[in-house]
Each structure stands twice: as structure tokens, then as C-alpha cells.
Write a structure and sequence with these properties.
about 160 residues, alpha/beta, 2 domains, 5 strands
Amino acid sequence: MLRNIGVLLELTPAERAKLIGSLSEKQCEELFHDWALWARPEQTPPPGDWVYWLILAGRGSGKTRAGAEAVRQWTRTFAIVNLIGATHDDVREIMVLGESGLMAICPREERPRYARASARLAWPNGSVSQLFSAEEPDRLRGKQHEKLALRRFKWN
């Protein structure tokens, strides 16, 4: 439909309104959840075969959204995509339930089921995500990981 938000912004307000008005409800929902359209280049995973991706940016720069979108993308290919944060609250309140967290950015049909008691997300396609924190590093021992998403830690 659209390659990036710049194409839409280049249209006059009347052309934009006409284009958006011609979309079905389903197309509008797809447009809303199309991260490739909305993301800035620095918010998308780098190309190539890499192990670490660091987003070093300030408050409000879209780090949480970029991470959530990467996890959403990874769960399409990998069966186990785990989340690690500084605290249990960080993982739950920011990475999973926050305004840019996984539950908010996934369309209804892709949204995982969150089991708070087991600290686990079950994705509709069968992928799973376990939630971990730096408060209990020993919980990571013996677990299987195909991809890991880490929330920032403070360095002193």
C-alpha cells in the first residue's frame, strides 16, 4: 500500500483524506500496525547476521517500540523469544503491558496471551516468550533461547 510515512506526508491534506477515506476498516488496521511504514531507519534491526543490536538513545526516542516490534517480528521465525529486563516490573509494565509494549503494538490476531503467574507469553502461532529479570539471573540457567530482547540497564 504505502512504502513509508513520507509518501503519505507528501500528499496534500485533501489527497491524504481521500486516500485514507478509501481504505476499508481492515486496511486501516493493517496500516496502523505496519511498522515498516512508521519506523525511522534507526528503529529497525540492522541488516546482516549479527548477535547484538544496541539502541543507544534518549528518552522518548522509540527504543521500547523498536524492541517490541523486533520481538513481534522474531516470533514469526523463532519458537522461543525471551524478554529480559532490569526488574520484574520493567519487563511486565514496560515491555509487555506498556503503551509501546507487546500487548499494545500487536494487532488482535497476533497478540500473545499473557500468563502473569508463569511470567510467559504464548503467541498465536505457537511461539513462546518467557519473562526474566536481572534480579534473578539464575532463572536463566538451563532455559532455551533462540532470541533475547533486553531492556536497558543503568550503567554507573
